[in-house]
Design goal:
Blueprint lengths: L2 H11 L18 E3 L12 E5 L2 H14 L5 E5 L4 E4 L1 E6 L5 E5 L1 H10 L2 E7 L5 H13 L6 H12 L4 H17 L7 E7 L3 E7 L1 H7 L4 H22 L8 H12 L4 E7 L16
Helix pairs in contact: 4-5, 5-9, 6-8, 8-9
Length: 284
């Protein structure tokens, strides 16, 4: 995947929250503004940077997920213990579903400069307006779901990566490994913080090999297909006679999202009080 392909396709089509085609301007050279805590920044006049531990940043995102109606994204650089804002055009649609885009030119620079990076974003808590909208949508299609049933399903979705999230991870990871550092210890992964915990997703060694010769469209399609297939399996395997446990169901969905190319794991916040490098392993 060449550099021009990466930039032209992502700038035109890719969003973290799946709003492809939304017009916006990138502000890659915005001046930096230091902040003590991670915040949602809708200004195009500056880019926020917070120097803090990864654990402290996760706690900030945990708080934001409960009070913010918008999403935000950061690149965390372990070497510098720094979170750098990479989100842009943070908005919420009429049905209260938040979406945003990523400042790709700026992210490209970071991918070339650092050999260890985690890309973060958080999913806000589900609003009553969003739940009501989903209930009405299903009702028009002939399905009768209660608000509690819809909220349960949406809580799983909001705690895990979407199809576009997986596709974005594949494309950025491949660019990182092909055009970034040549260090044998190079590492990139993505994480989503939600109300209930942290979902981590990355390419396996097999995935790096599988995707390295695929173009943007193929990478995005595979990400979407993986998510769609997992959702179908998830729905079929659910034991409707039992009262499901939300955390267990989130973990089960992550296992279904995982395959030989992509690994997805979920860790509830209650399990995060341990060494930093054990975050993903605790979800096994």
């Amino acid at each position: 995947m060449n550099n021009a392909k990466f930039l032209s396709t992502l700038i035109l089509a890719l969003t973290v929250g799946v709003r492809a085609g939304l017009s916006f301007d990138f502000e890659s050279e915005r001046p930096v503004k230091s902040v003590d805590s991670l915040v949602v920044n809708t200004s195009k006049e500056f880019r926020t940077v917070a120097k803090k531990s990864e654990e402290a940043g996760i706690e900030d995102m945990r708080k934001l997920s409960g009070i913010s109606s918008l999403e935000e994204s950061w690149a965390y650089l372990p070497k510098d213990s720094t979170f750098i804002e990479i989100g842009v055009d943070e908005k919420s649609s009429d049905n209260a579903n938040p979406h945003m885009m990523v400042d790709i030119p700026y992210l490209e620079k970071l991918l070339k400069m650092y050999d260890d990076m985690t890309i973060y974003h958080f999913h806000p808590v589900i609003s009553k307006k969003l739940i009501d909208g989903e209930v009405n949508k299903w009702k028009k299609q002939g399905y009768s779901y209660t608000n509690d049933e819809v909220e349960f399903r949406m809580s799983i979705a909001k705690s895990t990566p979407s199809g576009p999230d997986l596709g974005f991870m594949v494309v950025t990871s491949e660019f990182f490994y092909l055009h970034g550092t040549t260090s044998p210890k190079a590492s990139i992964k993505e994480r989503i913080c939600s109300k209930y915990g942290v979902a981590e997703f990355s390419l396996t060694e097999e995935g790096r090999e599988y995707f390295k010769d695929k173009n943007f469209s193929q990478c995005m399609f595979d990400g979407q297909l993986s998510h769609a297939s997992a959702y179908v399996s998830f729905s079929k395997q659910r034991d409707k006679s039992a009262q499901p446990d939300l955390i267990s169901e989130i973990k089960r969905f992550c296992r279904l999202l995982s395959n030989e190319d992509i690994k997805v794991e979920f860790t509830p916040y209650s399990d995060l009080a341990q060494p930093q490098d054990s975050l993903a392993s605790s979800a096994r």
